[in-house]
Amino acid sequence: MDNIIYKHPDEIRVVAVLGTGSVGASWIALFLAHGLEVIAYDPSPHAPESVNEFVSNAWPALRELGRTRLLRPPLDLIRFVSSAGEAARMADLVQENCPEHLEVKKKLLAEVEAVAVPSKIILSSTGGIPPSAMQEACTYPERLVVLHPFNPTHLIPLVEVVGGRKTSPVVVDWAMDFARSLHKQPICLHAETNGHMANRLQFALMREAVACLQDGIASARDIDAAVRYGLGPRWALMGGLLTLHLAGGDKGMQGILDHAGQAIQEWWTPSTSVTLTPELVQKLVKAAQEVSQGESVQHWVKWRDEGLVDVLKLQEKLGA
């Protein structure tokens, strides 16, 4: 149905947010910062209180980044309703954040499809379910597209845009433009894969971190320090491919591969099997206590968000 006319991203005024856990609440904070109204649905009776608290805590960072000039979040622009269908019917755009279970998502999408006109785009935050699998529940599959954010959603610029086999190219382009309107940095994936792409990248590193911990190569704190003080500063400026290219000096990528290609191949080939056995899980729980120094998650979330503002300001200043 390529003849469907979708509202321009600038014409979106009301967003239905389905699921208001940490991802959904973070989206709500960002939507409010950009002047959008939110019709929210979440089966938890505590959802309204939790969302208001999350948005209020997120607001100072959004102000510091220049995403809003309002001193306080306009919590009156959030309205909770009793069903996903009601939220979808009342909004210009549907944004889905329900649990990462295909059947749960398909059931919710079927409810949305029953009431939302074909020109109403559906964005999914799924972190790894291929959109084609979700489209099996859709009467109008061409309007479903993945817009996968990264925690914390209201601050981290990256979003992955992933279309399914039946997603209209127009909808993929629309999602890219909508993401940019929210000051996001969207990337478009050309193929579906479990975990999308960025999760594959980060969990490749996470796998090796766990393997180093399992093998006793270094303490949990020093494993994290290697990323924070070695890899992280460069990665805030450039990705792994450009980093490798610069390592080759004047000859660039060809030079580093000629010089150390065999060694690199050995380094990136896993030498340890990592399986989340009960013993390893306990080791990771102990590691978390070590790296968090006994402080609460809430303490570190506040510390992280304040630090991210400075990092993101530097990225915006330097550009690409």
UniProtKB/TrEMBL annotation:
Domain 3-hydroxyacyl-CoA dehydrogenase NAD binding, first and last residues per copy? 15-189
UniProt keyword Membrane present? yes
Provide the transmembrane region boundaries. Answer: 12-36
InterPro entries in the cross-refs: 3-OHacyl-CoA_DH, 3-OHacyl-CoA_DH_NAD-bd, 3HC_DH_C, 6-PGluconate_DH-like_C_sf, 6PGD_dom2, D-isomer_DH_CS1, NAD(P)-bd_dom_sf
Q: Which residues form a coiled coil?
A: none
Q: Where is the 3-hydroxyacyl-CoA dehydrogenase C-terminal domain?
A: 195-263
Pfam short name (any one): 3HCDH_N
Keywords noted in UniProt:
Membrane, Oxidoreductase, Transmembrane, Transmembrane helix
Keyword field contains Transport? no
Q: What PANTHER family has UniProt attached to this entry? A: 3-HYDROXYACYL-COA DEHYDROGENASE FAMILY PROTEIN (PTHR48075), 3-HYDROXYBUTYRYL-COA DEHYDROGENASE (PTHR48075:SF5)
Task: Indicate what this protein is called per its UniProt record.
Answer: 3-hydroxybutyryl-CoA dehydrogenase
Output the lineage of the source organism: Bacteria, Pseudomonadati, Pseudomonadota, Betaproteobacteria, Burkholderiales
